[in-house]
Write a structure and sequence with these properties.
By secondary structure, the chain is α/β, with parallel strands linked by helices. The protein has a single domain, classed as Spore Coat Polysaccharide Biosynthesis Protein SpsA, Chain A. 32% of the residues lie in helices and 14% in strands. The protein has 8 helices and 8 strands. The strands form 2 sheets. It has a 6-stranded mixed β-sheet with strand order 3-2-1-4-8-5. A two-stranded antiparallel ribbon has the order 6-7. 33% of the residues are buried.
């Protein structure tokens, strides 16, 4: 089974990729300064548009008829994403067979998650970019955007965050090439399009059609327990929570 890692890089230090001896095919889409000393990797330079969502769709469009059996999509830096990314990409392979899609932690979209701009205007991480209008505005909002792409998407929907996941080729090919080309056009129009943030929340549904819904409920429960210990500053090693964590396989 052929597998590949696809990385979306701006100016992150990606030396960690050199430690991935189990992966013979690593493609780096570089949207930042030129890279040197990465001769063993395929490097493709792109304009800095569309966030990682643009990168993933660009890869699919340009490899639609030549995709590997499993594609692992990763940010240029993953050690700052916490539970939203596996530190070892092999972990995606261990959990992919059940749904054809694998993420390190799932979540849920519900009544409070379909805001027009998905709360970016209130998120301290994005506040400056929002106020300066670096992040584009949507004319239709998150829910309408989602319904345009997926008319049957339910109000309660499994999601994954961080833009890091693995997916089997068969699930990518359930959509025709024109579907991806239309998405690519949308994501190419701005350096930081709000639609890129939308897609981060939609990859899971896009490829699984909510088949991971009950797994997502389990993960939400586990995350809340995990955060409870953190919020209360309990000095309890995370290994003591392992028995509470649902099996991801």
């Amino acid at each position: 089974m052929k597998k590949s890692i696809i990385v979306s890089r701006f100016n992150e230090d990606i030396n960690w990729l050199k430690e991935l001896k189990d992966f013979k095919k690593i493609i780096i889409y570089n949207k930042g300064e030129a890279l040197n000393n990465y001769d063993n990797f395929q490097i493709i330079n792109l304009d800095n548009v569309g966030r990682e969502s643009h990168t993933w769709i660009y890869h699919i469009v340009n490899n639609y008829n030549n995709l590997d059996d499993i594609s692992i999509f990763l940010q240029g830096r993953i050690d700052d994403l916490g539970c939203m990314a596996f530190l070892d990409p092999n972990d995606y392979l261990e959990t992919i067979n059940k749904f054809g899609y694998s993420a390190s932690r799932y979540g849920l979209l519900g009544p409070f998650h379909w805001g027009w701009h998905v709360g970016l205007e209130k998120n301290i991480k994005y506040l400056n970019a929002w106020r300066s209008k670096e992040i584009s505005r949507s004319k239709i909002g998150f829910r309408a955007f989602s319904k345009n792409l997926f008319p049957d998407i339910p109000f309660f929907t499994a999601t994954s965050y961080g833009g890091c996941f693995a997916v089997k080729k068969s699930l990518i090919l359930q959509y025709d090439l024109n579907f991806y080309k239309k998405l690519l056009k949308i994501l190419s129009e701005n350096k930081n399009p709000v639609e890129g943030h939308y897609m981060e929340r939609l990859w899971c549904y896009m490829f699984t059609k909510n088949k991971v819904f009950f797994k997502a409920i389990q993960d939400v429960f586990y995350t809340k327990i995990e955060n409870l210990f953190i919020d209360n500053k309990k000095n309890i090693p995370i290994k003591n929570l392992i028995n509470l964590r649902p099996n991801n396989k």
